[in-house]
């Protein structure tokens, strides 16, 4: 079979236009995902629910998100990013609109589940577009930019959404948010192309071959190293931004809603700033990528320990440090995709990225659920009864996931390096010298 004909330049103007449109969809997905962070207390009043039920909103959304990552990766490698992005936009728009008009807890939960299904299709679609539309030297930088700039959605979900909820009310604020998806559907349909090639090698794998390819990708220790790196670094930021950070700052630390919203906005700004530094370090030190992840996690553990040991509200400067350090976990989690790319060729990158993306969101949903359980046990009276001691106890569940993730990163780092030495001689020495390793293609021995 002849090589596919290239009809568009790679890494040029069209690539950037496609990326910007896809990035806008990701920013919208982050907004929808983060919207409950500032609406949690309102949701508790609207649906007459306690901490466990409030946590169920986000837990179910993340369960749907995480469980769909591998199937979405398969669909991406088969159908391309444009179709998957369009389906994701339809689901997110429908879910947010239903949430706007929901007046009962079951309907609201179903709406968030639909929204989570749409959200699950977005990020890995954008990352796949980056892989095929940008040059090898550009892709790592654009991947970091995707994670950083996409967090604009979280900024809009902080203070601006809180203001909209105050002025427009629940229904109109969320309905207005859902309408943005209609505009982006048109943009994706008109501007996003799956590949710069006329025929872009869509895989038509039979079920047995598909299962074999998934085993190969998952069996590669580099995929698992990426997944556990994502697991250990992302969940604390997600838990804080999506649900429990705002109640912790308001009910636990005694801040006003405006100050709490400002800290959540600062958190997102810090994602961008820290991501620039971390992206530069990852490019310069490819051999030490997993150590960079563990370094960020160690700093998070120290700062959280200082805050949780206090029996009285922390001073504002310390809370600023806390949200900034916690936010650094977002860029650190992006390193997981860069690690997976080292071990995975482009034809399987959708599946590998889907598996990596499961890590952080699995840890997030478990942590969110356990924090809700601890709060419910300690303060069954509901959100109005929470105090600082309740939050101190609840947030301690993070330590179990930090410990598990750190052990697994160290374990699979050793296995991944041994794999490269065995299968790709010279790759480890190349990375030690500061030169990223580009995967030459996959073979049956890759997953062993």
TrEMBL record:
First-listed, main subcellular location of the protein, grouped into a coarse class: membrane
Protein name: Nitrate/nitrite transporter
InterPro entries: MFS, MFS_dom, MFS_trans_sf
Membrane topology note: Multi-pass membrane protein
Organism: Nocardioides taihuensis
Assigned keywords, A-Z: Membrane, Transmembrane, Transmembrane helix, Transport
Biological classification of the source: Bacteria, Bacillati, Actinomycetota, Actinomycetes, Propionibacteriales
The keyword Transmembrane helix appears for this protein: yes
SUPFAM superfamilies found in the cross-reference section: MFS general substrate transporter
The UniProt record lists the keyword Transport: yes
Domain Major facilitator superfamily (MFS) profile, first and last residues per copy: 18-417
């Amino acid at each position: 079979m002849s090589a596919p004909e290239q009809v568009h330049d790679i890494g040029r103007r069209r690539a950037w236009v496609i990326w910007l449109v896809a990035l806008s969809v990701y920013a919208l997905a982050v907004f929808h995902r983060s919207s409950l962070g500032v609406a949690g207390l309102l949701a508790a009043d609207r649906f007459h629910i306690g901490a466990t039920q409030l946590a169920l909103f986000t837990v179910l959304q993340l369960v749907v998100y995480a469980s769909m990552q591998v199937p979405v990766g398969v669909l991406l490698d088969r159908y391309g990013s444009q179709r998957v992005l369009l389906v994701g936009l339809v689901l997110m728009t429908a879910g947010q609109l239903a949430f706007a008009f929901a007046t009962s807890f079951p309907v609201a939960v179903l709406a968030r589940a639909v929204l989570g299904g749409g959200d699950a299709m977005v990020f890995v679609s954008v990352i796949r577009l980056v892989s095929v539309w940008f040059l090898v030297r550009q892709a790592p930088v654009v991947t970091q930019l995707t994670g950083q700039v996409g967090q604009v959605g979280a900024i809009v979900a902080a203070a601006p959404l809180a203001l909209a909820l105050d002025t427009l009310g629940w229904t109109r604020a969320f309905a207005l948010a859902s309408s943005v998806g209609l505009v982006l559907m048109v943009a994706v349909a008109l501007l996003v192309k799956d590949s710069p090639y006329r025929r872009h090698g869509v895989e038509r794998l039979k079920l047995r071959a598909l299962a074999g390819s998934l085993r190969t990708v998952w069996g590669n220790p580099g995929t698992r190293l990426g997944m556990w790196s994502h697991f250990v670094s992302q969940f604390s930021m997600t838990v804080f931004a999506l649900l429990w950070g705002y109640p912790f700052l308001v009910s636990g630390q005694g801040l006003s809603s405006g100050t709490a919203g400002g800290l959540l906005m600062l958190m997102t700004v810090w994602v961008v700033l820290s991501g620039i530094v971390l992206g530069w370090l990852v490019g310069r030190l490819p051999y030490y990528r997993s150590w960079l992840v563990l370094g960020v996690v160690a700093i998070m553990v120290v700062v959280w320990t200082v805050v949780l040991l206090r029996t009285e509200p922390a001073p504002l400067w310390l809370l600023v440090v806390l949200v900034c350090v916690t936010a650094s976990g977002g860029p650190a989690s992006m390193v997981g995709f860069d690690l997976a790319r080292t071990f995975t060729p482009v034809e399987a990158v959708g599946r590998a990225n889907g598996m990596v993306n499961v890590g952080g969101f699995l840890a997030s949903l478990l942590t969110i659920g356990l924090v809700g359980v601890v709060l419910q046990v300690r303060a069954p009276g509901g959100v109005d009864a929470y105090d600082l001691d309740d939050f101190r106890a609840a947030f301690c569940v993070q330590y179990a996931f930090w410990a598990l993730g750190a052990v697994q990163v160290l374990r699979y780092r050793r296995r991944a390096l041994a794999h490269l030495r065995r299968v790709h001689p010279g790759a480890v020495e190349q990375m030690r010298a500061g030169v990223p390793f580009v995967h030459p293609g996959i073979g049956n021995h890759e997953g062993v």
